[in-house]
């Protein structure tokens, strides 16, 4: 059962690898909404999982979808008023 934590870490890494760059090419707001809904569904599925295999799949999907905070920072920066935006950008 301890390997489920490794599956979660792998899912998060896959999410960073695929979804973070995807935020540069598609509408971030829609991507954040979709990932939030997918993560919610995966967490419900993990709570109802009948076995460890189903739990592992649900945890992987949920972990991959938890990259939303990495997408929110650029989303907020692009929606900030022009006088605030330079203060939000990195030095």
From TrEMBL:
Highest taxon listed in the record's lineage: Bacteria
A single Gene Ontology CC term: plasma membrane
UniProt-listed Pfam families: Sugar_tr
GO molecular function, one term: transmembrane transporter activity
Keywords linked to the UniProt accession: Membrane, Transmembrane, Transmembrane helix
InterPro entries xref list: MFS_dom, MFS_sugar_transport-like, MFS_trans_sf, TAT_signal
Topology within the bilayer: Multi-pass membrane protein
Primary location class: membrane
Protein localization: Cell membrane
Domain Major facilitator superfamily (MFS) profile: 1-91
Cross-referenced PANTHER family: MAJOR FACILITATOR SUPERFAMILY (MFS) PROFILE DOMAIN-CONTAINING PROTEIN, TRANSPORTER SCO4007-RELATED
Protein name per the record: Major facilitator superfamily (MFS) profile domain-containing protein
Organism: Streptomyces haneummycinicus
Lineage start: Bacteria, Bacillati, Actinomycetota, Actinomycetes, Kitasatosporales
């Amino acid at each position: 059962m301890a390997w489920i934590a490794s599956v979660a870490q792998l899912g998060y890494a896959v999410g960073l690898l695929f979804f973070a760059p995807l935020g540069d090419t598609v509408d971030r707001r829609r991507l954040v909404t979709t990932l939030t809904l997918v993560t919610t569904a995966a967490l419900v599925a993990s709570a109802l999982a009948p076995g460890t295999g189903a739990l592992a799949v649900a945890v992987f999907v949920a972990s991959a979808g938890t990259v939303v905070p990495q997408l929110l920072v650029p989303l907020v920066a692009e929606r900030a008023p022009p006088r605030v935006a330079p203060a939000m950008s990195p030095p």
